[in-house]
Amino acid sequence: MVIASRYEIILPDEFAKIASVFHDLLEELNLSPGSERADTLAADLIRFYQSGIHDIQALKLLMKP
Predict the structure, then answer these.
(1) Residue 1 reports pLDDT greater than 50
(2) pTM score
(3) What highest taxon heads this organism's lineage (predicted)?
């Protein structure tokens, strides 16, 4: 039995876009890459992207405190 995910698969070029946003935010928010907050940030970015938010500026705005 196959259970379909409600999220879309992230292709390599899309992942690169998310990674770029992630690294920009790490710098802007002064976060260490392995910190708990950075891990949460990465998970949230992926979740928002998979839910249909693909605009870089929108993703950055959603992630800022």
Answers:
(1) no
(2) 0.82
(3) Bacteria
